[in-house]
Amino acid sequence: MRLRSPAAGRNLRPITQVLRAHLPEHGRVLEVGSGPGEHVLAWAREFPGLLWMPSDVSSRALESIAQYRHDAGLANLELPQSLDLSEAGWEEALADRVDAIVAVNVLHVAPWAVSVSLLSGAGRCLEAGGQLFVYGPFKCNGAHISPSNAAFDESLRGQDPEWGIRDAGKLASLAKELGLLLEEHHEMPANNRILRFVAQR
Q: Mapped to the 3 state alphabet, what secondary structure does 81-131 carry?
């Protein structure tokens, strides 16, 4: 039942480097949109002091994560849970607040409402000073940062008019209204970035 994502093999190392620089030594980390589970499995091994909480909306993804977890036998990797970011109040399914949230390649393959829901839910469930890491392609000041990103955006909107690359400034403005401050942009390979938000309480 284990699935694989080619993108996970390409972006795991640079994302991990950013997480290593900012994650606390101990705490609870929620990954939303975990997909097959390759990222969260690697991070549970890389950061043994953190409790990793994978989640997804796809039943196939949840089955894959559960199989990776079973095979690895890692005590700091929880069973995956079904979380649908398109539903307001998704964070209410969590038993307690979390210290960090990681979202990889989520926002551009979902309607804008999912971006709003992720930020609003994160603002409510992150501990004070907790962090939200969002990885993917982003516009800056309303413009694409490369021709390849522009072509990718057009392709996404061709698949679904509600999909598309989001603007980092627009996300930052919305996040501020919801109690999150965009602390920094980390440039990633292949014209991607990580936006790191911090909960202001």
A: EECCCCCCCHHHHCCCCEEEEEEECCHHHCCHHHHHHHHHHHHHHEEEEEE
